[in-house]
Recover the amino acids of this structure.
C-alpha cells in the first residue's frame, strides 16, 4: 500500500521497531507510579463505603473512629460536598448535559461501594481500622439492580430522572423501515445481552493532593490519562486559577479509558486537601476498584437485518439500551450514540436506523472503556453469522457480498457516518488467507465426524479514531534544542503504557533530522508541558504526530537558517541537515553540528544578523483538519469447545488491521495484542456481576477473572497500510483490539456448536453458560423431534 | 500490637527494622526500604505484581508479613540488574521483545521469570505459559512476554549464565 | 486492603506452638499464609494472635519409611513438587501439586496448611483422602493419628481441635500394578477447581481390580470419596469398566454440591462426572499398561 514506502524508509525512525525509552526505568523498578510518590508529612485516605445497594443514610457516628490513635479526621458529605464550585469535564464542556456526581454520598447511597465517609490517618492500615469504627445507619430502600427493567421500575435511582432514564437518542423512526422489513425475503433478528465488565488496569486508581495554603496552589500526582483534564477539573472544582494547580503523572499503570476522567474520590481528595494541613494520598485497593471504579459494556440490544434473496443486506436497525449505573462519568449519552451510528459497520447497507436509551441503576457507574461503542460490533457481527446460518450461506460469503469495496469509498453509512481511507475487505481477505479458511472448513468437517467441535468466527469493523472533539481537536508540542545541541520535546502526555515517549522521540528525530539518541521527551506535568487532551479516543499517535511535525518543521527552519549563516552564508535551500549535522549540498566536507548551531543560537547572539532568531525553542499547536480518522480491522478466531465441560479453547487468533503507516510496529502490535486479550476476557471470562439485591459478587481477582498467559493463544498479525487524511497518514490503534475480539470469539463458539442448533444471546460465554445452551438446544431439539413425531403420528392416524 | 525486630538482606544490603506484625512484606519493601519497584496490584495473592525472590524463590510479597521474612535474603526487581545498570538477561529480553507497556506488572513478571528459568532453564512453550499464569498483565496480551521468556532462556543457554546474579557474587561486592 | 492488628509469635517447637495456641486468646496457626493472609487482608478473618510455624523445623521434611512416605506438615508444595522420592512413591501427590495455584503460591504454601484449611476445591485434601493417609496431630493433650477418612468434617472444618497442630502426613506407598490420576476443571489455569477427581487403582495378579479409590473435590463442602462406586469396581476386570458410567455413578446422590457465579450444582456434577471418567481412564491405563 502507498503508506509503506514511507514507513520502511531506512533513514527514518518512524516505521522502525525502535526500542522503548520507557523500558529501562520500568524494568528496573525505577518508574514513578502514583503510589511511589511520598510527600513530607503525607496522610493516608480510606473511604467508608456503602454495603447496601440503596438506602437512606439516617445517621453517621464518627466518634469512635476519630478517637482511634493515628486518625486525623473523618469527613462526611457535609464536610466536602458544599465546597464543590463547578464540576464538569473539559472532555464534555461546560454546557453539556451532565448527570449527578456528588463527591460523597449525601442522604442516600446508590450502590454498594458508594463512598460515605473519608478517613484521614497516619497510614492506610490505621485508616482501614478506623473505617470499621464508623457507624452508619442505613434505612434500606428497594434497589434498581437490573437496568433492563429500570424504565418500568417505580423506584428511582435519582429523583430528578423519571423512569430512571438518563437520556435517549436515535435516528429516523424505526417505523420508517417497516416496509423494507415486511417485504424482505429474509429478516434476521436477535437480542444480545452483554455483561458488565471493565478496563481493570493493573494499577488501581490513586491520587496525592498537596495544598499550599500560603500561596493557594495545589499540586496533584495521580494515575491519569489526561493530566490537563485533572488540572482544569480541580481548578473549577475549587474555584482557583488554573495555573495554581499543577498535575504530575510520570508512569501510569494502564488506563484503557478508566483513567480519562477524575472521579468522585478524586474530588474528595482535592477538596479535603484544602481542609487539612498535610498532603493526602489515596491508593485505591483492588476491592474498591471492583466496587467503585466503574463498569462498562453493560448493555443489550435488538439487532435486525433484512436481506434480499441473494443475501444482500437491505436494512439494519438496532434498538439499544445501556446501563449507566448510579453515577456515570461522563454522561453516557454522548458516547453511547456511537453504538447506533457505527452499527452498519463496514457493510453496504442502504437503509437503517437506531435507538439508544440509557438507564440508571443502583450499581457502579459507567465509565469509558476502550472502544466504548464496541457493542455495535457484537450485535452486528454476531447477527451476520446468525443470518448466514438462517439463509443457508457461508458467513464469509455473506460478508464478501456485503462488505464495502475500496472503489465505493469515500461513502457515508446509512446513519450518516462518513467513511474514508478504510480497507475492510482487504483486511478480511488477508486474515482469512492467514488462516486458510477453506482448509479450516475441511478440518472442521473431519473433526465433527470424530466428535470434536471446532469453529471459526470473524469480526470486521470500522473504527473512528482521533475524533476532533472540542478537547481533542488540537494538540501542542514544544521542542527545545538545548545549548548543547540535545533536544527536549514537551507534550502533554498521559501515557499509560502506550509508549508515547518513544513515539514522540521517533517523530521528533525524524522531523528535525537529528539522532534519536539526542532526543528526550518530557510529558505528564502540566507545569511544563503544552496543554493537551491526554490519551483517549485512540488519538495520541495521529494528534501527537501532528503537533510534533508542525512544531519541528518550524524549528528545523530556524536550524537551517542558522546553519546557512554558519556555513558561510550559503542560501538556506542549499543546506542539508541530517542526524544533527548540517552541510552544504555537494560539499559534504564543510559541516556544522547541531551543538555548534545551538551554541551560536544561545551564546553568540551578538554575532548573528538581526533577521535570525536567537535560541532554538518553538511551540506549536496542531489543529485537526479531520472530524475523525477511520481505522479498520478483521479478527478471525478458531476454537474448540468441549461439549461436556463447556470449556472453550482458542486455537488460532488472527488480526489484520489497517491503522495507516505504523510509527513503531512494536507499539502498534502491542496495542492490538493487549486490546484483543481484553476482548477475549470479555467474551469468555470477565464479569462484574451483582446478585438480585445489588450486591457485587465479583469483588476479588479470584472471581473477576482476567485471562492469563495460559488462556491466550498466539496472536498472528497482518497489516494493511492505507494512509489517513491525518498527519503522517497515521490512524489511531489503541482501542480496536478490544472491539474486534468479542464478536470473533462468540462467532467461533457459535460456529463450533452449530450442529447442535445453539443460539447465543447472553454473554459472557462461561463454560456453564455453554453447557446450558447445549442443554436448551437439546431440549428444543427433543421437543422439536417430539412435535415432529407427534405430527407424523397424527398424519398417519389421519 | 508489639513491634518485632527483624533483620533481612534486601538486594544484598542488610536492613534492621522494628515492624508491626501486620506489616505486609511488600509495604516493608516499598515504604520502609523505599524500594517502590515491587508493586501492589491486588493485595490478595492473585495478580503477581508484588513478586519478589525470598531466599531465591519467587513469592507473593503481599501474602507474607515482614516479620516472617526475618533472616531472609530478599531480591526485588531493583536488585536484578548489574550495579552498573546493565539489564539482566531477563530484563533485556523483556525490552527487546516488547514484553512491557505500562510497566506496572513488569517487576512481578521479571522476578518470577528469573526464578522460573533458574529452576527450568529449557522450558517448553506450555511450561512458559504455565509459569506465567500467576502474573496478570492487562496491557500486552502476554505475546511479548512469552517471546521474551523464550528468548531469555535461549540467551541463558547460549551464555551458560544464570537468570539471577548469584548470591555469592553479591556478598563480595 | 490491609490486615487488622495481631500479636505475632514464632515458637521453635511444635510443643511450644500448641502451648501458645492453647494459652492465647483467639490464636491461629500461620503456615505458608497463602490462604490465611488473603483472608486477613480482606478482613474476612481477624485473630488476636498468630502463631507462625516457620521456626518449627520438626514440621518440615520428606522421609521415606517402610512402605510409606512421611511428609512434615510445614513442607512447601514447591518442595513436594521437586521431590524425586514423592514422584516415585506417591505419584498422585506429585501429579496434583502443579495444579495448585501458581509457582509463587507453591513456594510458600504448605501441605499441612492445605490439608488443615480443607478448602472444598483444594487438591491435597482429595489426594489425602484417596490415599487413606494418616494425619499426625499434636495438642497439649498429646499426639494422635487421625485417619484421612475421619479428618474432613465439613466446609473448612476438620477433626483438628483449635489448639491442635497437624505435624505430619504419612502416605502409604502403593505396591504392585497401580495407576494414579488427577483431573480437574478450573475456569482458568491455576484457579481453584470447580470440580475434580483423584483416582488410584490397583490391579491384582489375576488382572482384576483389587484396590480402588476415587475422591472428589469441588463437589461438596469438603473432599469426599465415591465409596459406592469403588466397592462396585473391586474384583471387576479393567476391560469391563465403563469410565463414563463410573463418572455418572460417582455423582449420583451427591448432596450439598456448591452453586455460585461460575456454575450451578448440576453443572458441577456434569463436569465432576467427566473428571472422574477422565481420571479413571488415565489411571487404569497406567495400571494395566507396562
Ligand atoms: C491465588 C491463589 C491460588 C490458589 N490456588 C489454589 C489451588 O488451586 N488449589 C489449592 O489447593 N490451593 C490453592 N491456593 C491456596 C494454597 O494452596 C494455600 O497455600 C493452602 O491452601 C494453605 O497452605 P498454607 O501453608 O499457605 O496455610 P496458611 O494459609 O498459613 O493456613 C491456612 C489454614 O491452615 C491452618 N494451618 C496451617 N498449617 C497448619 C498446621 N500445621 N496445623 C494446623 N493448622 C494449620 C491455619 O491456621 C489456617 O487456618 C491458592 C492460593 C492463592 C493465593
Ligand atoms: S499484589 Fe500480591 S499478588 Fe497481587
Ligand atoms: S504492562 Fe501494563 S499491566 Fe503489564
Amino acid at each position: 500500500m502507498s503508506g509503506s514506502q514511507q514507513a520502511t524508509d531506512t533513514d527514518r525512525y518512524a516505521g522502525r521497531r525502535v526500542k522503548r525509552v520507557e523500558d529501562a526505568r520500568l524494568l528496573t523498578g525505577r518508574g514513578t507510579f502514583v503510589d511511589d510518590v511520598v510527600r513530607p508529612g503525607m496522610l493516608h485516605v480510606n473511604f467508608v463505603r456503602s454495603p447496601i445497594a440503596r438506602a437512606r443514610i439516617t445517621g453517621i457516628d464518627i466518634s469512635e473512629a476519630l478517637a482511634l490513635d493515628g486518625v486525623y479526621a473523618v469527613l462526611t458529605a457535609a464536610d466536602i460536598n458544599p465546597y464543590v464550585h463547578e464540576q464538569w469535564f473539559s472532555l464534555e464542556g461546560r454546557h453539556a448535559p451532565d448527570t449527578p456526581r456528588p463527591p460523597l454520598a449525601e442522604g442516600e447511597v446508590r450502590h454498594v461501594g458508594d463512598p460515605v465517609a473519608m478517613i484521614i490517618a497516619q497510614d492506610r492500615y490505621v485508616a482501614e481500622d478506623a473505617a470499621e469504627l464508623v457507624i452508619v445507619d442505613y434505612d434500606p430502600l428497594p434497589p434498581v439492580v437490573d437496568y433492563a427493567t429500570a424504565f418500568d421500575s417505580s423506584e428511582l435511582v435519582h429523583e430528578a430522572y423519571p423512569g430512571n432514564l438518563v437520556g435517549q437518542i436515535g435516528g429516523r423512526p424505526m417505523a420508517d423501515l417497516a416496509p423494507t422489513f415486511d417485504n424482505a425475503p429474509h429478516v434476521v433478528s436477535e437480542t444480545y445481552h452483554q455483561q458488565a465488565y471493565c478496563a481493570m488496569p493493573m494499577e488501581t486508581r490513586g491520587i496525592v493532593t498537596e495544598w499550599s495554603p500560603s500561596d493557594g496552589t495545589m499540586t496533584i500526582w495521580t494515575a491519569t490519562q489526561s493530566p490537563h483534564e485533572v488540572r482544569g477539573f480541580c481548578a473549577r472544582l475549587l474555584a482557583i486559577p488554573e495555573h495554581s494547580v499543577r498535575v504530575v503523572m510520570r508512569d501510569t499503570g494502564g488506563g484503557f479509558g478508566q483513567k480519562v476522567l477524575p472521579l468522585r474520590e478524586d474530588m474528595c481528595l482535592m477538596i479535603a486537601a484544602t481542609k487539612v494541613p498535610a498532603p493526602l494520598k489515596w491508593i485505591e485497593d483492588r476491592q474498591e476498584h471492583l466496587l467503585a471504579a466503574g463498569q462498562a459494556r453493560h448493555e443489550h440490544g435488538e439487532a435486525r437485518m433484512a436481506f434480499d434473496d441473494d443475501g444482500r443486506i437491505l436494512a439494519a436497525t438496532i434498538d439499544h439500551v445501556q446501563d449507566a449505573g448510579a453515577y456515570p462519568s461522563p454522561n453516557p449519552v454522548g458516547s453511547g450514540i456511537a453504538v447506533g451510528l457505527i452499527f452498519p459497520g463496514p457493510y453496504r447497507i442502504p437503509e437503517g436506523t437506531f435507538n439508544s436509551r440509557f438507564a440508571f441503576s443502583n450499581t457502579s457507574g459507567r465509565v469509558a472503556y476502550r472502544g466504548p461503542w464496541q457493542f455495535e460490533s457484537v450485535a452486528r457481527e454476531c447477527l451476520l453469522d446468525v443470518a448466514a446460518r438462517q439463509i443457508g450461506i457461508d458467513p464469509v460469503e455473506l460478508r464478501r457480498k456485503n462488505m464495502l469495496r475500496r472503489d465505493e469509498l469515500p461513502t457515508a453509512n446509512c446513519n450518516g457516518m462518513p467513511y474514508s481511507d478504510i480497507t475492510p475487505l482487504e483486511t478480511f481477505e488477508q486474515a482469512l488467507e492467514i488462516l486458510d479458511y477453506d482448509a479450516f472448513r475441511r478440518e472442521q468437517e473431519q473433526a465433527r465426524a470424530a466428535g470434536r467441535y471446532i469453529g471459526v468466527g470473524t469480526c470486521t469493523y470500522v473504527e473512528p479514531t482521533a475524533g476532533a472533539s472540542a478537547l481533542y481537536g488540537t494538540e501542542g508540542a514544544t521542542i527545545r534544542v538545548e545549548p548543547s545541541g540535545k533536544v527536549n520535546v514537551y507534550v502533554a502526555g498521559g501515557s499509560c503504557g502506550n509508549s508515547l515517549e518513544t513515539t514522540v522521540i521517533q517523530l521528533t528525530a525524524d522531523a528535525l533530522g537529528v539522532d534519536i539518541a539526542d532526543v528526550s521527551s518530557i510529558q505528564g506535568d502540566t507545569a511544563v508541558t503544552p496543554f493537551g487532551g491526554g490519551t483517549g479516543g485512540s488519538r495520541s499517535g495521529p494528534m501527537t504526530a501532528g503537533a510534533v511535525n508542525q512544531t519541528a518543521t518550524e524549528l528545523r527552519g530556524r536550524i537551517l537558517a542558522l546553519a546557512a549563516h554558519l556555513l558561510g552564508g550559503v542560501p538556506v535551500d542549499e543546506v542539508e541537515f541530517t542526524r544533527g549535522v548540517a552541510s552544504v549540498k555537494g560539499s559534504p566536507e564543510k559541516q556544522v553540528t547541531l551543538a555548534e548551531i545551538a551554541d551560536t543560537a544561545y551564546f553568540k547572539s551578538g554575532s548573528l544578523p538581526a533577521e535570525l532568531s536567537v535560541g532554538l525553542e518553538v511551540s506549536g499547536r496542531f489543529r485537526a483538519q479531520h472530524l475523525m480518522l477511520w481505522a479498520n480491522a478483521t479478527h478471525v478466531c478458531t476454537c474448540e469447545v468441549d461439549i461436556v465441560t463447556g470449556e472453550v479453547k482458542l486455537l488460532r487468533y488472527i488480526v489484520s488491521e489497517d491503522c495507516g503507516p505504523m510509527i513503531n510496529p512494536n507499539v502498534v502490535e502491542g496495542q492490538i495484542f493487549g486490546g484483543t486479550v481484553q476482548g477475549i476476557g470479555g467474551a469468555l471470562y470477565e464479569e462484574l456481576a451483582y446478585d438480585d439485591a445489588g450486591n457485587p459478587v465479583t469483588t476479588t481477582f479470584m472471581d473477576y477473572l482476567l485471562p492469563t498467559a495460559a488462556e491466550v493463544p498466539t496472536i498472528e498479525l497482518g497489516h494493511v497500510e492505507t494512509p489517513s487524511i491525518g498527519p503522517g497518514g497515521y490512524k489511531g490503534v489503541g482501542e480496536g483490539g478490544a472491539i474486534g475480539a468479542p464478536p470473533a470469539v462468540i462467532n467461533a463458539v457459535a460456529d463450533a456448536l452449530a450442529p447442535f442448533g445453539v443460539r447465543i444471546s447472553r454473554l459472557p460465554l462461561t463454560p456453564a453458560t455453554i453447557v446450558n445452551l447445549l442443554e436448551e438446544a437439546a431440549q428444543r431439539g427433543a421437543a422439536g423431534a417430539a412435535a415432529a413425531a407427534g405430527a407424523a403420528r397424527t398424519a398417519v392416524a389421519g | 500490637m508489639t513491634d518485632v525486630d527483624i533483620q533481612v538482606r534486601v538486594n544484598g544490603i542488610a536492613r534492621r527494622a522494628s515492624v508491626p506484625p501486620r506489616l505486609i512484606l511488600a509495604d516493608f519493601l516499598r515504604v520502609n526500604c523505599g524500594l517502590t519497584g515491587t508493586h501492589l496490584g491486588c493485595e490478595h495473592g492473585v495478580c503477581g505484581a508484588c513478586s519478589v525472590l525470598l531466599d531465591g524463590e519467587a513469592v507473593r510479597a503481599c501474602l507474607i508479613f515482614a516479620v516472617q521474612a526475618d533472616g531472609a535474603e530478599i531480591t526485588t526487581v531493583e536488585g536484578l540488574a548489574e550495579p552498573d545498570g546493565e539489564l539482566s538477561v531477563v530484563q533485556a529480553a523483556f525490552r527487546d521483545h516488547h514484553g512491557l507497556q505500562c510497566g506496572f506488572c513488569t517487576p512481578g513478571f521479571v522476578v518470577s521469570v528469573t526464578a522460573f528459568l533458574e529452576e527450568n532453564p529449557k522450558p517448553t512453550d506450555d511450561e512458559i505459559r504455565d509459569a506465567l499464569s500467576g502474573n496478570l498483565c492487562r496491557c500486552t496480551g502476554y505475546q511479548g512476554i512469552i517471546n521474551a521468556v523464550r528468548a531469555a532462556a535461549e540467551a541463558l543457554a547460549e551464555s551458560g549464565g544464570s537468570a539471577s546474579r548469584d548470591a555469592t557474587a553479591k556478598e563480595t561486592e | 486492603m490491609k490486615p487488622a492488628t495481631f500479636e505475632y509469635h514464632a515458637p521453635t517447637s511444635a510443643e511450644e506452638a500448641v502451648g501458645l495456641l492453647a494459652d492465647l486468646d483467639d490464636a491461629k496457626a500461620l503456615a505458608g499464609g497463602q490462604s490465611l493472609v488473603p483472608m486477613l487482608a480482606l478482613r474476612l478473618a481477624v485473630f488476636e494472635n498468630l502463631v507462625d510455624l516457620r521456626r518449627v523445623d520438626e514440621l518440615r521434611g520428606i522421609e521415606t519409611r517402610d512402605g510409606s512416605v512421611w511428609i512434615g506438615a510445614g513442607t512447601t508444595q514447591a518442595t513436594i513438587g521437586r521431590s524425586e522420592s514423592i514422584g516415585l512413591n506417591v505419584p498422585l501427590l506429585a501429579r496434583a501439586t502443579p495444579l495448585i495455584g501458581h509457582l509463587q503460591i507453591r513456594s510458600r504454601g504448605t501441605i499441612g496448611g492445605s490439608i488443615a484449611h480443607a478448602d472444598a476445591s483444594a487438591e491435597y485434601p482429595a489426594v489425602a483422602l484417596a490415599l487413606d493417609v494418616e494425619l499426625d496431630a499434636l495438642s497439649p493433650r498429646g499426639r494422635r493419628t487421625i485417619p484421612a477418612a475421619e479428618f474432613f468434617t465439613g466446609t473448612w472444618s476438620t477433626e483438628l481441635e483449635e489448639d491442635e497442630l497437624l505435624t505430619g502426613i504419612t502416605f502409604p506407598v502403593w505396591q504392585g500394578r497401580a495407576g494414579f490420576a488427577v483431573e480437574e476443571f478450573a475456569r482458568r489455569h491455576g484457579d481453584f477447581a470447580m470440580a475434580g477427581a483423584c483416582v488410584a487403582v490397583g490391579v491384582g495378579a489375576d488382572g482384576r481390580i483389587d484396590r480402588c479409590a476415587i475422591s472428589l473435590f469441588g463437589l461438596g463442602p469438603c473432599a469426599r470419596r465415591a465409596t459406592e462406586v469403588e466397592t462396585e469396581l473391586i474384583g471387576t476386570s479393567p476391560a469391563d469398566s465403563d469410565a463414563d458410567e463410573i463418572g455418572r455413578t460417582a455423582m449420583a446422590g451427591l448432596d450439598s454440591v456448591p452453586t455460585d457465579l461460575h456454575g450451578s450444582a448440576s453443572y458441577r456434577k456434569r463436569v465432576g462426572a467427566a473428571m472422574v471418567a477422565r481420571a479413571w481412564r488415565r489411571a487404569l491405563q497406567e495400571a494395566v499398561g507396562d
